[in-house]
Each structure stands twice: as structure tokens, then as C-alpha cells.
TrEMBL record:
Family matches, as SMART domains: Molybdop_Fe4S4
Cofactor(s) needed: [2Fe-2S] cluster
4Fe-4S Mo/W bis-MGD-type domain: residues covered: 243-298
Protein name listed in UniProt: Formate dehydrogenase major subunit
Source species of the chain: Variovorax soli
Amino acid sequence: MNAPAKLNELMPQTVEFTLDGRAVQAFEGESILQAAQRHGVEIPRLCYKEGLRPDGNCRSCVVEVKGERVLAPSCCRNVTAGMEVEANSERALKSQRMVVEMLLSDMPEAGYKWNDGQMAPGERTPAVGQHGELSDWAQRLGVEVRPALAALRREQPAPDVSHPAMAVNLDACIQCNRCVRACREEQVNDVIGYAMRGADSKIVFDLDDPMGDSTCVACGECVQACPTGALMPKTQIGSQQVDRKVDSVCPFCGVGCLITYNVKDEKIVSVDGRDGPANHGRLCVKGRFGFDYAHHPQRLTVPLIRKPGVPKDFSDAPRPGDWQDAFREASWEEALAFAAGKLKDLRDTHGNKALAGFGSAKGSNEEAYLFQKLVRTGFRSNNVDHCTRLCHASSVAALLEGVGSGAVSNQVNDVEHAELIFVIGSNPTANHPVAATWMKNAAKRGAKIVLADPRITDIGRHAWRTLQFKADTDVAMLNALIHVVIEEGLVDEAFVRDRASNFEALRENVKGYSPEAMAPICGIPAETLREVARAFATAKGAMVLWGMGISQHVHGTDNARCLIALVTVTGQIGKPGSGLHPLRGQNNVQGASDAGLIPMMFPNYQRVDEPGAHAWFENFWGVPLDEKPGYTVVEIMHKALAPDDDPHKIRGMYIMGENPAMSDPDLNHARHALGSLEHLVVQDIFMTETAWLADVVLPASAWPEKTGTVSNTDRMVQLGKRALNPPGDAKPDLWIVQQIAQRMGLPWNYEGEECGVAAVYDEMRQAMHAAISGISWERLQRESSVTYPCLSEEDPGQPTVFIDTFPTADGRVKLVPADIIPADERPDAQYPFVLITGRQLEHWHTGSMTRRATVLDALEPMATASMNQGDLDALGLQAGDVITIRSRRGEVAIHVRRDDGTPAGAVFVPFAYYEAAANLMTNAALDPMGKIPEFKYCAVQVLPGGAPVPAADYGTGAVNAVAH
């Protein structure tokens, strides 16, 4: 949330009351239960859980309040001045014990959540019991069930194990409703309910469906909330004792949820959400149940070298379980010498432009920093990039140009303070599920969500208005909104006068973009455009959140320029509940970019061709540096296929944790480029599609096997700690990068634990002193998460920026007018459909991790394309049929599923599946400024029938599921 801005927020008011005969203080608005706990008085509680709305239904927390006839539930009764409370009076204890005994009497003989060997709060001996918190409180209150009461035990309901991740055993349910509140009020998924009356009352999923058949999205908030084990992760039924708990950060999307790994017998057995500033204990299905990829039998455990004479056939499907066909095992010394030696030889023979490196947004800041430093000082060029080029490069380009910073202005959960939330080009419930919960919570409190997207996604159920505009018409629609603001006198004149430049050019440009003129182009009625523009301009706070639907176009930079202009002319930036937030896709896209893992920028977005920055880094690193920006991801692929007489031909590459053979556009071209390299070094945890084309494969560490920092979409630098050791002879990525550097002649020596991670971080902090100088390694050890900009140890960080000025040359927003630029490729008679690509909830990026996670693969085991019912009918198709989608570059055969949120004339394909790789078809045309490919729009045919490629051999879920 936003940092406190007022003294009374920093210093809450207190009230005095009496607790068990002694005078104590409570904070204003604090419950009796919370105040008592702060003062060391433990009151039983079962339906209460911190973070959930208090419900007061179990009555195990009752206390005696002087002068009142009945006992009061302490969880939902606030303290008042002068109140006299007895938490341990004879009457209160008798009632507490009675409630606990009655609940315990209905429990099954064998429970599901044994708390054996665990210490109860304030206890010196372990609590013993089979029913979680209920057994714990029974033991502490000295409660045993009388035989006569046990004889009246209810008829026990049958178990429900239909869900891949969770077991439902309602014989252990005490109907505390914590799961209902977690599902309906926290996550706002509206799956779990409370049905029937009296003795027949029970917890149900949807319309009393089995959990596995319900609309459950497997966030697991219910299992984290359940006190007794009635809802449990299947991996941890029974004893809850583990060998250790290790705090870390979720390794998937950019929300940056803090987590705790539960480790037993050197395996992660479950994951809990921590009370981090981005998630406050919440997780999604990937964060909670996607952890066992780290233990998959296909993990790379020894260095590999390609066998002599084995060709790099880029059309050959990788066989991750049969790598012996193409590779042989090698020692680390041999593999490192070969990897670095050949790279060094290519550099010395063909010049500094002959090499390139792709770093990773899935690793740590320290790895990203060292990797880009290796390329710049060891390869001696700026040919370094990572997946930000494929997601938000155009957003960053527009933000740097317009507001002087590529990071977000406000954090996601600042939507709590917004009256209007404008979500465009993003499917947050699938791509950023925990961030979506904050939006849904805000909508329940009365905020207006506007969803602007060619596809109507799940967040549309919570939207006030849905703008389902025609794909590729973003600029037309956004300029129409700006036109209304200016035409109807809704401009924040003071803000524009004092804090913006080039407004007159913007005003002149949008004169021709009236809603009436743009309605036929974008497909949104003019009056709806006017209504949304008025609501945005007049809202107390209006916040824009966008995804790759904005950025992955040849006009992606223009799309983002329009969003910057919209918030500027309305004054909706630089204050709580307003501003600009490009949602980051991977766990460290923000941090990797900040650390300089991009070809035109040193760390902290200092241009490599700016003389002052260039001189500073030459002095800091002590080596001469290339003065020219390097090539980007797609440009590097072109240069790998350049003729031999091209002095900038890329001949060797080092790829750490990226999978361009799946993530790049026009995959046949990209795979051809990778297979044509003279030397390719791939560092990864699995035999990915890219590793299959390598000359050397270096086995690396998964996220739970390393200590390091990542920076989330909210500008929070967050620390993750190592929970496991890498398997076999795999090594930490940080160690491998340093070994390559040393063999290329760089005198690196980072001393300390965990491969010198603290020393690397401290060097990175110096390189990024203008952003994170106040975030020391020691501070991260204490606090886990600190928001930047943070310039001193006393600085709490700045969740909201641009409050008084913008970090531009003149301190003002630079408004840049944008005009309609059509997609590089439009539908025609031969290719009449539009292909839209993206992610889905259960899988992430290229699937190399999530498709090896048992639960995730079981939930979504096969590739499907989405089309609406009208298009299915027109083609004579039914859900589950096979179709062939063909573009001018490639084709896939894939099963089709019905999705009426997909517009007519469009087909949506996720890009996580090798056997139906969406990027075989996508267009590599680039945004000229952001150098980002046009993933979100190309022309395709859709034909009935075809022969799907067998699923890649990941060895987890079934591959013959039916598409629903």
C-alpha cells in the first residue's frame, strides 16, 4: 500500500482498557482479540484468521465484558475506552472449552493435519493432535471429548479427491467459513459457498460440484485458510512437521509474491504465502502448486558437450529424456574450457561484434548484472538482451521518453485508492492473478473497472464498462478518449500548465479523433467512449494498468504514448490511486532491465552512447567499453544468419536461462539462426528447445536453489534465500558466469557465501546508486522487501513517484502525439483470421518449468486454441475438434476450445506448448523504437482437421485430455 503520509497514520490513536485486571492500551479500531494477543494474552480462535474479515461464528474466542449479559466474541468486538475484559474468567473459559469439545467430538478418528512435533505459540512442549488448530487449542485448554459426546458424532461425508492439487475431507470441517471468506472476499473467485441449513449445512463448490469439476482456479487460498485439514494440499496430508522453512520469492510472474518453502527430506513439499507487501499472504496456482519442477527427473545434472558429427537439426523436436543421442557428459573443467575458449577464439578472430548474450528475467538481479557485465567487458560489445525485448520494451521506450523513468509510477495494490481502474491489453486473472485480486477487491468496494481489450477475459465479470475494441485499433480508441477530455473541458489545466510540455501539439493531433469518427474504426460506440473518458477525467484517482496487448505491436510505443497522454491531460499521475503501471510478465523482468541486461542501456537506464555514462562505467569497471548500442533479440537472430562478409555477423552466443527457440517470433527463422551459430553455450536447468541446439550445455540452479534478489513490477527489491542444493553436479548460475568470465580473461573475484552474492549485489548497488543506494544487503536480510527509489538507509522507499516532478530534463512530462499505424500484416481473403497470442493461468512463458510441474500439467495438459461459438459454427467445428492454424511463416495443428470472450474473426493461442508453438506463426516485424516484435497481431487461416504433433516428452500429466 502507499506509505503513510500523515502523522496520525504513523501514530495510531490509543484507548485504555482493562484486560484480566490490568490496565493496557489498544489501538483505535483494534479488536479485543488483537489487543490481547499484543499484550501476551492468548485467546482461543478458530474462525478467525489474520487477514480475513472477522466473522465471529465459531464462538471459541468469547470473553467476558463487565456489565454485559452475554459473552462477547473477541475477534469482532472492538475495544472501547474504559472497557473491562476478562479473557480467562471461569465463565469465559467454560464456554471456550465447551465449544472446542463439541467441535472436536465431530472430528474423525484419523485427521489430515497433524501438528505433532510443532511448537504452539508460547508453549515449551510440542502440541499433539490430528486436527490442526483445533487439536492445538484443545491441548492448550485441557479439553478431551467425553465418550457420551463422541457417541453422537455426525454421519461423516465422503472424501473428494477429484482435484489434482487439493483434497476435500469435510469430515474434518468445523464450518468456520474461513475458506469461504478466503475464496469469495480475498481472492474474489466466488467458488466456495455455504449451503443448506441446520444439520445439513455444508461447504460446497459452485452448485455442490466435486472440487475438480468446479470453476476453482486452484489458488489454494482455502487450504492456507483451513484450520483443521478439511481442505489440504495433497502433498502434505498428515504430519505438518518439516525439516526447515525457507523464505523466498515466487519464481513466476512479476507480482513478486513472498513465499515460504516447506522442505522435508530435501524436497519442497508445499509452499505458503508470506505477508509480503505485494501479496499479503495470497498466492495463485503457480506460486502455490508449481514448485515440483525443481525435482523433475529431467533436470540437467552434468555438463554436456555435443557429440562430433551430430547435426543441429532445428526442425527436430527436442527429446529431453534422451539427450544422450546428441550429447556426451563432460567434467566442469572440460565444459567451461570449451565453452569460454571457443567464445574467446571467435571474438579474437572475428572482432568484438561476433558474440552476443541472452540473459534471463527468471534469475536474480545479481546474475543479470554479472551477465551484462561479462558481455560488455568480456565479449567487448553491447550485444546483450533478454525477454523484456519480447514483452515491455516499447512500454519502457515510451516511459523513458515521456516521464524519464521506465518503471511504474504506482504499485498494483494502490488500486485500493482508485475510483477508476483502466485495464488495457492485459488478462490479469491469468497473467498476474494476485494483482488481479487487488483489482477485484477494489471493485467490491465500489471502484469502477474499465476493461479495454479485444478479448473479454475474466476480469470483465467485475468491470463497470467493457471496451472490446477491434484488435490493432488501440491508438484510435485512446486518442478518442483524449479528444473527449480536451473537447469537453475536462483537462486538468493546472497540471498541464505546470508539469507537461508539448500539449498544444497533442491537442492539435487529436482534433480528428472524435469518438464519432473513431467508433467505426475501433468498434466502440461513441457515447461509451465519451462516458469512459468523462469518468476517467473526473475520478478522484484513475489508474492505468496494461500488459503485452499494448506493447507487442509495431505501434506499441505509440500505444504507451497515448496512455501517458491520457493520464497527463487528466492529472491522473503523481498521487495515490492514479498513474501508470505496465504489469511485468516474469519474476525479474523489471530487475533484469534495471541491472542493464539490455543492449542500449547500462544499469539504471544510462545510455551506452551517452558520454558521461560511458566514461563512468569505463572507470567503474576498469576496461574500455563499446560506444555503440548493441543488437536486440530479433536483430541478433538476423545477424546470426548474415553473410560471412558482414563484420557484425553473430557467430557465437551465450544464453543463460532463456529459451528463444520457443519465445522468439517466426520460430523457423529463430531456430535456423540458433542452429547456424558456430558456437552456442546454453546454461539452463532442463534440456530446453534452445539447449537442444547447443554445443555446450551447462547445468544450472533452479530458483529455490539460489540466494539472490529480484525486483518485481512494483519496484520492490526482494530477497530470496536458498532452500535446496542443486541436483547432481549442477552449479549455481552465479558461479558459472564467474567461471566463464575468468576463462575469458576477466580478473573477477567475488568472495563470500552463496558464490559472493552479497559482494555482487553491493557492486550493482554502486552502479545503480541513483535508485537503490539505500537498500543494503543487510537491510534486505532484515526486511525482505524494499521499494525503490530508496537513497538512504532511513528512506522507507517511494511507492508513488512523480509527486512533485518527473525525472526528465525539464522536470515535465513530454507529450508525444500518436497517429494510427496499421499492423504490419492485415487479414485478407487468403488469411482472414487474426492470431492473438498470450499466456494462460496454469502455464508460464515457454512452459519449460510449468509443464514439468505435476499439478499445473494435470490442470492444462495439452495445447488448445480459443475461438468463439459463432466462428466455430461457421467452420462446422465443435469444442475439442482439431484445427490447423496457418500463417505465412508456419502452421500448427491444435485442439480448439470455445471461448466467447475471443472476438469474431480471431483465434487465441498460448505460447507455452512446443507441440503447438504459437510463435511458429507470429510476425517478427518490429516496433521501430522499442524493437519489440508484433506478437499480438498477424493474419492466419483456420482450417478444420490436421494432425497434432505429439506432446513434448516432459513426463508429467496426460496428453489425451479433451478440450472443454
